[in-house]
Write a structure and sequence with these properties.
- One of its GO terms (cellular component) is plasma membrane.
- It comes from Muntiacus reevesi (Reeves' muntjac).
- One of its GO terms (biological process) is response to type II interferon.
- By secondary structure, the chain is mainly α.
- It has one domain (3-77).
- It has two helices and no strands.
- The protein has helices spanning 6-22, 26-78.
- Helix 1 runs antiparallel to helix 2.
């Protein structure tokens, strides 16, 4: 459920951050780390939204199917 591969892009930025830190570029490392953090948060929020939407769609669809079956049984039982 990783939207637009944001988690992978965040991982790439975290690796860049680590590399910048290893060569002593603390400012560059902080910049990459900040971007990685933002991308991870966006991926998490979008993933949660997709899961919630999926649950709503599945539960709504299930309720509609149960209602249709109930009406079918009531109509068939009346004949």
């Amino acid at each position: 459920m990783n939207c637009c591969c944001l988690g992978f892009v965040a991982f790439a930025y975290s690796v860049k951050s680590r590399d910048r830190k290893m060569v002593g570029d603390i400012t560059g490392a902080q910049s990459y780390a900040s971007t990685a953090k933002c991308l991870n948060i966006c991926a998490l929020v979008l993933g949660l939204l997709l899961i919630i939407i999926l649950i709503i769609i599945v539960s709504t669809g299930s309720l509609m199917i149960l209602q249709a079956l109930s009406e079918l049984i009531q109509n068939h039982g009346g004949h």
